[in-house]
Amino acid sequence: MKQGKFISAISDAYRIPQGTVRLYVRELNKAGLLTTGAHGVNAPDMTPLDAARVTIAILGTDKPTHAAQAVETYGNLGVNRFYNQGDLPPFATDEDYCFVLEEILEEIFGFQSSAVINLTSVEVCREELQATITYGYRNLTHHGGFNGTVVFDADYETNRELMASGLDRGKQTIARLKSGDIQDIAARITQHLSGAPVE
Asked: Alpha-carbon distance 125 to 102, whole Å?
């Protein structure tokens, strides 16, 4: 999916004006955080990592000019195993590696992980510098699925640095996307990358 169609798809799925999405994408392009290359027919397709970064930027800030900073801040939040609850995907319980939000969203947008099974929502709490991925449904278990919450947050030093910088993260601001919104974009991206016809 080329960047123009990608912007349109994000706008439709996330219910944000195309002009606003375009501003986020432009800022991330300027920061070198999105796939770029030739223009027109030879332009590269957008990737699951691009979708992850645009999603993090949109959840992390209402100001497109702060998109790159939002990706840096929230994309690098690591899994906090002490706060996780319920039956969880392997990445949330792997003590040998600290996965960060950007990596997991990239896998979700690429349908490359069990992390996509029973995904319910992804949210960022700007005030707490925290993100949460929720799985499953109350009183409902699907075969091979998960039912719980995975919490991502910053380490103590990062929190201190951000507090000292005076970064305005927004008071009581929680931004959330439902699984259907994310899976719509994931399906479109993987269809394009695999060469399958897109409906």
From this structure: 15
Whole-prediction pTM: 0.87
Q: Is 161 helix (H, G, I), strand (E, B) or coil?
A: helix
Say if residues 131 and 122 touch (Cβ distance below 8 Å).
yes
| β-strand partners of 100 | 78
Query: CA 34: distance to chain centroid?
Result: 14
- C-beta separation of 146 from 71 below 8 A: no
How many Cβ atoms sit within 10 Å of the Cβ of residue 181? 18
Say if CB 175 and CB 126 are below 8 A apart: yes
Residues of the chain short of pLDDT 50, as ranges, are 138-140, 142, 198-199
Give the Cα separation of 62 and 175 in Å (integer).
10
Encoded tokens for 85? 């609850």
